[in-house]
């Protein structure tokens, strides 16, 4: 985003009197404690042997074997169109520790078995910007690794609900910016949907805000998503409410960030993860009954 637009936004927010520590604007320097975000994962390119382990995006465990993230994190532009990344072996998922270099424990790392990009994903408008990774083997449930269940369909957070977003994103938008080795987090609140639509509509080159998207902003004006924070979960009142898809390019303003509204995709996500991983006692009872019918037919 250009400087002029940034300045306009700052003026819009009435925040032009504030000064910012640009070296700490990612998430206002809140370092996450171990086990604070046990559902948080880092999606990485395996070939990069650096302390940040090739981190490209955040993601969230919605079951112990499925990661929800942004489609834009898992698609590449090739031959004139966006397609899901082809070579799954080049990627891996890391979970269970706040420090990316802390990956000696094999229980923290999983390879990818499959990627499901939402079939309605439109890269230009960011519509349906959501994808699910199926891991080759599930993680082991524990205090440091735990799934954050999907919200009920169309259960959205109320305006002004307090939210949190964790991320390993960069501290700035320079060419040399690298992701943060340590997990940070920012406090957010759910932004007015109609105001967000107006803010975005008034800016050139910004996506439209659809109802299947959600906006959040920070009260402190310095906590903003940056490169590598995309795909991460916005958690509001303990519910998985958003997947970060669009930030203000690290600029510290009250400009709202854009998320895929997860509750619009609960039904889709359940079809991807399968009934067994969306634990519902009713479904299990039904399965049990069917097994009994099946068994009784063979026993008799
Ligand atoms: C800005 O943040 C960095 C990183 O935490 C810190 O080292 C530095 O002292 C801060 N600078 C100011 C002027 O507060
Ligand atoms: C993981 O463990 C927690 C705490 O014991 C439990 O509430 C949760 O249902 C477990 N999840 C799975 C998928 O087994
Ligand atoms: C998304 O969910 C909201 C309610 O949270 C609803 O108003 C809206 O119509 C839904 N949009 C789509 C495209 O399903």
From TrEMBL:
One of its GO terms (molecular function) is serine-type endopeptidase activity. It holds the Pfam family Trypsin. PROSITE patterns: TRYPSIN_DOM (PS50240). Residues 26-274 form the Peptidase S1 domain. Belongs to the peptidase S1 family. InterPro entries: Peptidase_S1 (IPR050430), Peptidase_S1_PA (IPR009003), Peptidase_S1_PA_chymotrypsin (IPR043504), Peptidase_S1A (IPR001314), Trypsin_dom (IPR001254). The keyword Protein biosynthesis does not apply. SMART domains: Tryp_SPc. It comes from the Eukaryota. Residues 1-17 form the signal peptide. It comes from Chrysodeixis includens (Soybean looper). The keyword Hydrolase applies. Keywords: Disulfide bond, Hydrolase, Protease, Serine protease, Signal. This is Peptidase S1 domain-containing protein. One of its GO terms (biological process) is proteolysis. The lineage of its organism: Eukaryota, Metazoa, Ecdysozoa, Arthropoda, Hexapoda. CDD domains: Tryp_SPc (cd00190).
